[in-house]
Amino acid sequence: MADPYISFINVEKAFGAHRVIHGLDLGIGKGEFVSLLGPSGSGKTTLLMMLAGFESVTSGEIHVGGARVDQTPPHQRNMGVVFQNYALFPHRTVAENLGFPLRMRGVARAEIRARVARALEMVELSAMAERRPHQLSGGQQQRVALARALVYEPSVILMDEPLGALDKQLREKMQLDIRALHARLGLTIILVTHDQSEALTMSDRIAVFNAGRIAQIGSPAEIYDRPATQFVAEFIGETN
Ligand code: ADP
Q1: What is the mean pLDDT of residues 194-223?
Q2: Nearest-CA residue for atom 27 of ligand 1
Q3: Phi/psi at 56 (nearest 5 deg)?
Q4: Could you report the predicted ipTM of this complex, rounded to two decimals?
Q5: Buried-most residue among 52, 139, 187, 213 (CB within 10 A)?
């Protein structure tokens, strides 16, 4: 890639004596949808958290948009994060759920209203603004969680197993919805998943993780048709 928007350069991470990411290099283009795929414990979430700034790097560098960010506090990195356990405030409406964090940051009321309206429109939930979370379906709640990340107008969306709590049918619908949103908005998205079919369906490229290293990176077709190692072949060949 000529000029990646996000670069991990020789990034290492250790928790005490336990090294979980080994000299990792990865470049991600602006507007790309990249999945980090691999078994549980292979370091995917740790890498995402280092990019978001919720985990420090032990050594190496992370650059975003030409600036080094690995020492920058999380709220200055302009990343939207969506987790599997997307706790919404149960007693607040959807609009309040989105607006509340902005209010805490001192954003003006009119600006909050405009941003909340835009974010709800992006996930096609404008009609649900005054509902409370329990009045929404699982998929709609998931879209509120996504809108809560979009309301910051981030340059990058980070998703950690965002669909893990949903049943299979809904998960497959949300995969297509998120993919469509990506195409429509030109967002840069990084998705952590252990689900091969999810990564194959959604991504421009997949980085297959094995024990803190990237075993292979490529398009879904490249990974599927030409697995580079026995590990990749076995992992991709598994059915969930
Ligand atoms: P994955 O997302 O691929 O399941 P993780 O990044 O969550 O993997 O974990 C990678 C390794 O780092 C695991 O061995 C895990 O136990 C360890 N780990 C993750 N977070 C911490 C932490 N806060 N303290 C100690 N060890 C951790």
Answers
A1: 96
A2: 15
A3: -80, 160
A4: 0.98
A5: 187
